[in-house]
Amino acid sequence: MSDAATNEPCDACGEATTDALARTVRLSVDRANIDTQRLCPECFAEWIRRYEAEMAGGDTTAASDGSDSEIIID
Question: Which InterPro entries does the record cross-reference, listed alphabetically (predicted)?
């Protein structure tokens, strides 16, 4: 068994990240893997902030006038 840690790049910023520090985010729908990302601690923290903002209904980059420009009506 090897004690050498691998240094693969973060999928968001490209910086080398050791296995001990890397976080893996997986998106699955109906048990089918849609996306998997390997993230460094900083990019993972940003991913969590963005996820929390979007799940709370507030986009930190959205206009503050209350308009919703992303509404799609079929």
Answer: DUF7569 (IPR055991)
In residues, how long is the chain?
74
Indicate the DSSP class of residue 59.
-
- DSSP, res 60: T
Contact 62, 45 (CB under 8 A): no
Contact between residue 52 and residue 34 where contact means Cβ atoms under 8 Å apart:
no
Structure-block tokens of residue 23: 């976080």
- 44: burial class by Cβ within 10 Å (0-12, 13-18, 19+)? buried
Q: Is 15 helix (H, G, I), strand (E, B) or coil?
A: coil
Q: What is the pTM of this model?
A: 0.62
Phi, psi of 46 (to 5 degrees): -65, -40
Q: What pLDDT, on the 0 to 100 scale, is given for residue 74?
A: 53
Cβ atoms of 38 and 19 closer than 8 Å: no
